[in-house]
């Protein structure tokens, strides 16, 4: 099957899932371990623990001159990060080091080092990360999710508050690890220059003795309470992030929703580019992009403008959004399909870049097939975009974050 987009999926007796995609012409191998443990599993009191645990697990092994540190010194790309839904540990390397990559990842997951001195070292590191992150505009994307989902689950910040960080000790980390780092909540993905049976045999040998504990975890609780959040500054420019609640990952409406986002604010020629920049010179840059999770989704419109022009910008933007209730025209629909298809194919060509999407789908009980995504995009009609825009792009689903205005100023600008 030289041109088929296919996966080999296996579920071991302990519940561990393995996805393998051999690539005939690949020159590298990518391994990823995805643990179904992220911010959505936290409460306000435990917020930040999934990110802190990822730091401790990964850096403890790396600092102890492990297999992973050797691979990095030889040019491998070794990564670890925490999202709202999962934690990822991954290695991309040459095929001759594939076995070493698997051993290194196995040691991360199965032999975590919760040493008190290493915990304190990572605590200091993450504290600096929190200070740096919260003092930049990068935090605005987190504020958008707070505005959409409230102060729980998806609305919690990935890094968590500094006061929580002080409470995460060895006992709490071990308890969290024993609850969430289990085979039933883990997916292993391998792509590239590999043979499927060889991969399955080696993963089985590495993880066959990993027992699934008898632990029941309640599903995360979600809130749907779009709100307005103002973050006052003395600056003359305002960073304005407007978001609309949208469909989840498993909802087929995410296809027209993504095409609407691209037509609305992706680059030169998009509706908001023309209306706000070309016709009125109100902004310099503007971008609209969709985000999807297993339980929810949304579209964010990001822009920056002069403080005195905020009200006019919002009025123009909401007018353009309302016009989308009539649906995209044929030219917009074709342009958006081409843009999104190109992005999917570019992602598909790079195993390392594709890993997070594959893991995200798998954690949510889905399998990512690029060709299926493209075919579903091709099935979207103008009527679909009109229906989806009317359902999701309205004042009942709107959340706004303004970096540069207080809440009263923001309310006056939106009214």
Question: Which helices and strands appear, and what pairs or packs with what?
Answer:
Blueprint: E1 8-11, E2 17-22, E3 29-35, H1 49-63, H2 67-73, E4 77-82, E5 87-93, H3 98-110, H4 116-134, H5 140-149, H6 162-165, H7 170-180, E6 186-192, H8 196-207, E7 228-231, E8 237-246, H9 254-265, H10 271-278, E9 286-292, E10 297-306, H11 310-323, H12 330-348, H13 351-363, H14 370-378, H15 382-392, E11 398-403, H16 407-414
Parallel strand pairs: 2-6, 7-11
Antiparallel strand pairs: 1-2, 3-5, 3-6, 4-5, 8-10, 8-11, 9-10
Helix pairs in contact: 1-4, 3-8, 9-12, 9-15, 10-11, 12-14
Folded structure, characterized:
The protein is built from 16 helices and eleven strands. It has 415 residues and is of the alpha+beta class. It folds into two domains: 8-207, Metalloenzyme, LuxS/M16 peptidase-like (Cytochrome Bc1 Complex, Chain A, domain 1), CATH 3.30.830.10; 228-414, 2-Layer Sandwich (Cytochrome Bc1 Complex, Chain A, domain 1), CATH 3.30.830.10. Strands 1-2-6-3-5-4 form a six-stranded mixed beta sheet, with helices on both faces. A five-stranded mixed beta sheet has the order 7-11-8-10-9, with helices on both faces. Helix 1 (49-63) packs across helix 4 and helix 3 (98-110) runs parallel beside helix 8 (196-207).
């Amino acid at each position: 099957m030289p041109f088929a987009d296919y996966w080999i999926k296996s579920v071991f007796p302990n519940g561990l899932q393995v996805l393998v995609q051999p690539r005939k012409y690949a020159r590298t191998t990518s391994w990823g371990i995805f643990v179904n443990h992220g911010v959505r599993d936290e409460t306000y009191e435990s917020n930040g623990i999934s990110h802190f645990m990822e730091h401790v697990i990964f850096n403890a092994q790396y600092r102890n001159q492990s297999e992973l540190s050797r691979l990095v010194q030889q040019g491998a790309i070794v990564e670890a990060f925490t999202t709202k839904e999962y934690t990822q540990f991954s290695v991309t390397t040459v095929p001759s080091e594939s076995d070493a990559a698997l051993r290194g990842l196995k040691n991360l997951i199965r032999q975590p080092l919760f040493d008190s001195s290493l915990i304190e070292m990572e605590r200091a590191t993450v504290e600096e990360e929190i200070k740096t992150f919260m003092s930049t505009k990068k935090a605005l994307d987190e504020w958008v999710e707070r505005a959409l989902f409230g102060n729980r689950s998806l609305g919690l910040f990935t890094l968590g508050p500094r006061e929580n960080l002080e409470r995460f000790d060895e006992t709490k980390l071990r308890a969290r690890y024993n609850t969430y780092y289990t085979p039933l909540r883990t997916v292993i993905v391998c792509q590239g220059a590999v043979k499927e049976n060889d991969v399955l045999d080696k993963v089985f040998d590495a993880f066959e003795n990993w027992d699934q504990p008898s632990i029941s975890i309640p599903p995360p609780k979600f809130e749907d309470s779009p709100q307005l959040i103002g973050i006052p500054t003395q600056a003359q420019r305002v960073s304005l992030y407007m978001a609309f609640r949208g469909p989840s990952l498993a909802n087929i409406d995410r296809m027209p929703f993504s095409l609407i986002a691209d037509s609305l604010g992706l680059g030169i020629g998009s509706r908001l580019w023309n209306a706000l920049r070309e016709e009125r010179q109100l902004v310099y840059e503007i971008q609209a992009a969709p985000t999807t999770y297993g339980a929810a989704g949304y579209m964010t419109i990001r822009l920056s403008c002069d403080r005195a022009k905020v009200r006019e910008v919002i009025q123009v933007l909401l007018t353009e959004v309302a016009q989308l209730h009539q649906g995209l025209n044929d030219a917009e629909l074709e342009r958006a399909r081409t843009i999104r298809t190109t992005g999917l194919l570019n992602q598909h060509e790079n195993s390392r870049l594709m890993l997070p999407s594959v893991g995200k789908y798998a954690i949510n009980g889905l399998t990512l097939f690029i060709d299926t995504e493209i075919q579903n995009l091709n099935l979207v009609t103008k009527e679909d975009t009109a229906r989806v825009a009317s359902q999701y792009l309205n004042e009942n689903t709107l959340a706004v974050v303004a970096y540069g205005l207080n809440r009263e100023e923001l309310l006056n600008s939106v009214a």
